[in-house]
Fold these 2 entries.
Entry 1:
Amino acid sequence: MIALYPGSFDPFTIGHEDIISRAAKTFDGLVVGISEDNAKDNFLNYEQRLNLAQVLFSSFSNIQISCFRGLTVDFAKELGAEIIVRGIRNVTDYESESQMAQLNKQLAPSVETIFLNSPDKYRSISSTLVRQIHLLDGDISSFVSPITKDFLLKLK
Ligand code: PNS
């Protein structure tokens, strides 16, 4: 079974990496789908996020990295993915993720959303805060992998 893990990943945090490695163990194949046109202002462009992901997940033989435009469910159908994976860190995530899952289900009844619960140690980590700390010269070592930290430092 093929699953799609969509997101902005701007940048990838250790929380994302945890979800990705667990999902890769659960499904035959996992596509990490980098959304190119999310409403948020991007920090890394999609090519940078794609390049970073290719390095981060190079050791997983069943992970494919792709960028996509448009609706997540359309991309899932294009891939033949029956599952959308999303991580849940807290109650706020639960509210917004369940809303998104319900609408996605209405748009594409054949695609199921499955939530993976984040462990406590990753519950407060978000790309938005990591971005902010990094841009203000703070130390992001506890929130991203060394590969991501080096990648971001080289861009400064
Ligand atoms: O992890 P993020 O950054 O919150 O990811 C959000 C993402 C990219 C999964 C979501 O915004 C999305 O699915 N965007 C694609 C457009 C879409 O399908 N919108 C309808 C969602 S019901």
Note: The first helix runs from residue 14 to 26.
Entry 2:
Amino acid sequence: MISHPNDLIGEALRNAERLLLVTHIRPDGDAIGSLLGLGLALMEAGKSVQMVLDDHLPLQFRHLSGSEKIQRAIQGDFELAIALDCSDRSRLGRFGQDAIEWTINIDHHITNDGYAKINLIEPQAVATAEIIATNLESWGLQISEAVANALLMGILTDTIGFRTYNMRSDVLRLAANLMDAGANLPELYARTIYQKSFEAVKMWGSGLSKIQRIDGVVWTILTNQDRQQAGYAGKDDADMINLLTAIDDAKISVVFVEQPNGKVKVSWRAVPGIDVSQVASQFGGGGHPAAAGAELAGELQNLSETIIEKTYLHLLKTQRNSENS
Ligand code: 5GP
Ligand code: MN
């Protein structure tokens, strides 16, 4: 009989004492929530755990208890390597290049290429933190208050406050269980969804002033200069993309963010029925049907024109197919 990855993970976690947990670069709430949720639960079970990330920990996650234990380098050996919320090795940053043998890969990205020995990939899950929260107790681990806060934060951020189209009623039940275990929903909501820095909102001004549209495709561009003028410290879009998706007739929203290293970070969002991960894949990126991203080398203006053209063609193709079916 072939064992389910869930059982194999439980067995692997029980049998290992020294574990390495890594999540993806440019970490979002689900990356950090999954890393901390599983990492702290393993620590509380008496294991020796390294929680590692090839990036800075974004400010909005530093209030989480245990976040101070996240490190940027591997120290010492480990028996078992676990990758979280990460669709392929390249998203692990320099740990993806190292000759690490990944034993466990837990993720909800449909584009995950299954690079580990045990791959628990559930594309219908709203967050990797949902998969962890659902299975933690069956893996012999407990949901303490710190673990509950981390996992609820992952679910809350990947669903943008329970409002993405992939939301299911059992995610709300799971969230209620995490609140019962001590998670503070209003505080997590304020710190990771609602509150923005002055600089972030100032950068929105630049992005909003340059907004463009072709039919159902809406997009804007954020340059290094916009970032400097706003005094915004992050390299991300400051959640600009969520402002574009608020436009009622936007079927696909796209934000281009020029990076200090000369590359361009692209984010796509789509309404149900449109799969933007297919467009992102054409440019070496990936993600989910409703939310995808890529990072490319090239000149911002040319690149944005090429990508908008391909995105628009994808919208037309999707609309044509749905008319014919
Ligand atoms: P975001 O636009 O918020 O950066 O990413 C949206 C989704 O696409 C996330 O689920 C993220 O994991 C995925 N994604 C973002 N950038 C990349 C990338 O460069 N490569 C891949 N494979 N996925 C990405
Ligand atoms: Mn995720």
Note: The two ends are 40 Å apart (CA to CA).
